[in-house]
Design a protein that fits this description.
The protein is of the alpha/beta class. The chain is built from eight helices and twelve strands.
């Protein structure tokens, strides 16, 4: 079963989310707040494919805190944030903490399911035991991307990537030295049916630079191509 943890303190919104995900074929576990979400995650030994987290929840752990903790424990779980339109900085903060996507309230059932399906496909692909890449590794300068065990190294130093970050790096490695538009990256990583905003690409690039660049504010590998997008230089 495709298992999802939903943490939302507003009962009517939580029920709306759960009903539509169940109809779409997901097995859903509900949490009323962040503390309960983390406890359920521990009780089930992290056995969830995706976590959907409302940013604003009462208690010690709001959605951002839960996002940070889940990402710390599990680099492969898909994380989607639910946010109000006024929570722009919280969205960016969540993406910087490792969330894969966010859905802005109010949202339609079709939008929610489409976004969840896109994240699930990415998680399932990464966790597929019988996935056989044509090449085990991609090399670019001092960087190595292992397609079989989904690992990334800078020289001998391992660097932990989320599934989104890994897919971006795989796209960069396969197109080294080529200017890639934001829309190209968005379609390749998030899928052609993605209905979110292109700025999700920029936030993930910012996060990647913090991991791969010696000086993130003066990048030499993930280079901005003004008016278009980004280029990978080894």
């Amino acid at each position: 079963m495709r298992k999802i943890l939903v943490a939302e303190d507003e009962q009517n919104i939580r029920e709306f989310v759960v009903i539509n995900l169940v109809r779409a074929g997901y097995q859903v576990t509900e949490a009323e707040n962040g503390d309960q979400a983390l406890q359920l995650y521990r009780d089930q030994d992290g056995g969830f494919d995706i976590a959907i987290l409302d940013i604003m929840m009462p208690g010690r752990n709001d959605g951002l805190a839960v996002c940070r903790e889940l990402r710390r424990q599990n680099s492969s779980i898909g994380i989607i944030l639910l946010s109000a339109r006024t929570q722009e900085m919280d969205k960016v903060s969540g993406l910087m903490m490792g969330a894969d996507d966010y859905v802005t309230k109010p949202f339609s059932p079709s939008e929610l399911v489409a976004r969840v399906d896109a994240v699930y496909r990415r998680v399932a692909l990464a966790n597929s035991a019988d996935r056989k890449p044509i090449r085990d590794e991609l090399q670019s300068g001092e960087f190595t991307l292992n397609l079989r065990n989904r690992s990334f190294r800078k020289g001998d130093k391992p660097i932990e990537l989320t599934q989104v970050e890994f897919q971006i790096m795989e796209y960069f490695f396969s197109n080294a030295g080529v200017a890639l538009g934001r829309s190209d990256i968005l379609k390749h990583v998030w899928g052609t049916s993605y209905v979110g905003e292109e700025k999700i690409v920029d936030v993930n690039i910012r996060r990647l630079r913090m991991k791969v660049e010696d000086v993130p504010s003066d990048p030499t590998h993930i280079v901005t191509v003004w008016g278009l997008g980004y280029r990978w230089d080894a």
